[in-house]
Specification:
Rossmann fold; 2 domains; five-stranded parallel sheet; four-stranded mixed sheet; 11 strands; 27% strand
Amino acid sequence: MDRLKIVTGNSNPDLTEAICRHLGVPLSKSVVKRFSDGEIMVEIHESMRGMRAFVIQSTCDPVNTNLLELLIIIDALKRASASEINAVIPYYGYARQDRKVAPRAPITAKLVADLLTVAGTDRVIAMDLHAGQIQGFFDIPVDHLYALPVLVKYVKEHIEGEIAVVSPDAGGVERARAYAKRLGSSLVIIDKRRSGPNVLEEMNVIGDIKGKVAVIIDDMIDTAGTLTKAANV
């Protein structure tokens, strides 16, 4: 632990402090601030030479600001001669853009992977990536963690009655099936059809949900339109 340093941006300092308390490691002294024109400035206030640095920063809303903070912190650590830089990204922004959906569309999840690598990241630690193939966008090691064990334990301890695990769309069936298997419950799928981004047209239930406690499993909430409509189907 002597060579371990934990650094955070502004995306979720409370999470970083909780991790530090759990590990018994102090949070490294640093400042992430803004110039008057909005530019991000990072200052590391202790030596990082030869240290194993872990940067805890989700690229959640505001996505672009948090992503740039992460990249600048990584660059600062690299220039401070840290021996190893680990990017801990609980929420990986731009994960939905993992493939071309139109002839001239970008694959932004791959671009983010390239930016993190070029900035100086040695390893990425992410949780419940929207698409597992994002791991293959990196030429550096990626540890893909899952919340499943923790959430399954919570459901078993706090929810009574017969459970049906619900996937709010066809793309999440594999994820929901893993939960259903661990819980020993049935699986229900909601077939949703969109007319455009964040716009739902129709939702149909596939499976038996009557009289059961529905546990809806999804990996990402944007407008919460899918979850709220799924709950009301």
